[in-house]
Amino acid sequence: MKLTNKSRLQLTIQKFVFLLLFTSSIGMLAWISNHYNYQFDLTANKRHSLSSNSIDLLNLLNKEVSVHAYTTDDITKKAISEIIARYQQVKHDFNLRLLNPDLDIAEAQQDGIVMNKPFAFVIHYNNRMEHIASLSEQAISNALLRLKRRDNQLVVFLSGHGEREIAGTTNRAYTKLHEKLVTIGFNIQTLNLLEQPLPDNIKLLVIAAPENEYLAGELKQIETFISNGGNLLWLTDPGKLQGLEKLATSLGIQLQPGVIVDNNTDLRRTLNIASPAIIPVTNYFPHKITNAIKYNSLFPLARGISPLTNDGNINNWQAAALFSSFGQSWTETGGLTEDMVFDSSAGDIAGPVTIAVALSRQLATPSTQAVSQRIVVVGDSDFLSDTYIGAGANLSLGINMFNWLIGDDDFISFEVTASPYTNLE
Question: Does 43 have pLDDT greater than 50?
Answer without folding.
Answer: no
